[in-house]
Design goal:
Elements (H helix, E strand, L loop, with lengths): L2 H4 E8 L2 E5 L5 H5 L4 E8 L3 H11 L3 H8 L6 E5 L2 E11 L4 E11 L2 E7 L6 H8 L2 H4 L3 H32 L8 H34 L9 H64 L14 H22 L4
Parallel strand pairs: 3-7
Antiparallel strand pairs: 1-2, 1-3, 4-5, 5-6, 6-7
Helix pairs in contact: 3-4, 7-8, 7-9, 8-9, 9-10
């Protein structure tokens, strides 16, 4: 892949104003200017590009190793005066939930974002930050907040879409016919809720650690913004927990309805079996090979036998109908 396509942006800022785009090799010179910081955005970079970024910013090799690939858990780790933050991004294309990963390196004078897998571009975040020079002048701490807030905001429509899907499935839950596809859809929805929960829940811990332990990058006046992110995350986690419980209950109800339906079928079969037992018993009696059966020589024997069978069958049918078996 071309290195230019992997470097989404590499800008220098002073007092909240962009001084223009630079190349990766010019980062060292830019950091020598007083009062500047550098914001680099990478998308699926290769190891060579990551080594170049490591040299320019002096990043720890373990953090670079984690950021080169994906499949890291959401976390925040400190390597000297640099923070390494891992976030999971999420997208839903209608066919299923897809998770990506964003790795953030935060220093006193730089921000490096590394995106892997499904994720919206952070170009909008950069554009919004550049329209707020007073806040952007606070440095990398504000950029970290803007990126985390963007990731968390993208969770919200996915959770809302999952809630709407559950409402539709819930409406068809008490349909007369069992639908195997409905049960599979509930199971898939529960799996997506679990995966999204695992991506969102750790963000609350990350916000707490940033506010408690890293006052150099997140000063007191900026902590209110991370508390806001934490509040949004807690709401989303609560919504997912509630929906997950409701999906589980819906699956149990669906299976219970299947069992009830099977019991109804068994009851009906048993009822008709009881009714058919009456003529079976009488006619099997006449099928026995005995000579001395008084009814065989009686003129009214056959009509009376039929009448007895008919009356007994109808009486049994009415009795079972009142009992709800038929």
């Amino acid at each position: 892949m071309d290195a230019r396509s992997m470097v989404v942006n590499c800008n220098v800022y002073r007092n909240g104003v962009s001084l223009g785009r630079i190349s990766i090799d010019e980062i060292g010179d830019a950091l020598e200017r007083e009062g500047t910081f550098v914001w680099v955005g990478l998308h699926d970079p290769d190891p060579d590009l990551m080594r170049s970024v490591q040299r320019e910013f002096g990043l720890h090799e373990l953090a670079i190793e984690d950021a080169t690939g994906d499949h890291q858990r959401p976390k925040v780790e400190a390597y000297g005066d640099t923070l390494f933050v891992v976030l999971h991004t999420a997208q839903h294309d209608g066919a299923g939930l897809h998770l990506g990963e964003t790795n953030l390196f935060i220093g006193q004078r730089f921000v490096v974002s590394v995106r892997h897998g499904p994720s919206d571009s952070y170009a909008r975040v950069r554009e919004q930050c550049e329209t707020q020079p007073a806040r952007l002048a606070r440095g990398p701490g504000f950029v970290l907040y803007a990126l985390m807030d963007f990731v968390v905001d993208n969770y919200r429509p996915i959770v809302e879409g999952m809630r709407q899907r559950f409402s539709q499935l819930e409406e068809s839950l008490f349909a007369e016919r069992f639908d195997r596809g409905r049960l599979e859809a509930l199971y898939d929805l529960k799996g997506e809720a679990l995966r999204l929960h695992a991506a969102i829940a750790p963000v609350s811990e990350i916000c707490g650690e940033l506010m408690r332990l890293h006052a150099d990058l997140v000063p007191r006046e900026a902590q209110v913004y991370f508390r806001d992110i934490d509040d949004h995350v807690r709401r989303l986690v609560q919504s997912l927990d509630t929906m997950r419980e409701m999906v589980t209950d819906a699956m149990h109800v669906n299976l219970a309805l299947v069992t009830v339906g099977q019991n109804e079928v068994v009851k009906q079969l048993a009822g008709w079996g009881a009714i058919l037992a009456v003529p079976t018993m009488v006619f099997s009696l006449y099928g026995m090979n005995f000579r001395n059966m008084p009814e065989l020589g009686w003129t009214w024997g056959y009509p009376i036998a039929l009448a007895v069978v008919l009356v007994a069958s109808v009486a049994l049918f009415l009795r079972l109908r009142r009992a709800g078996w038929l």
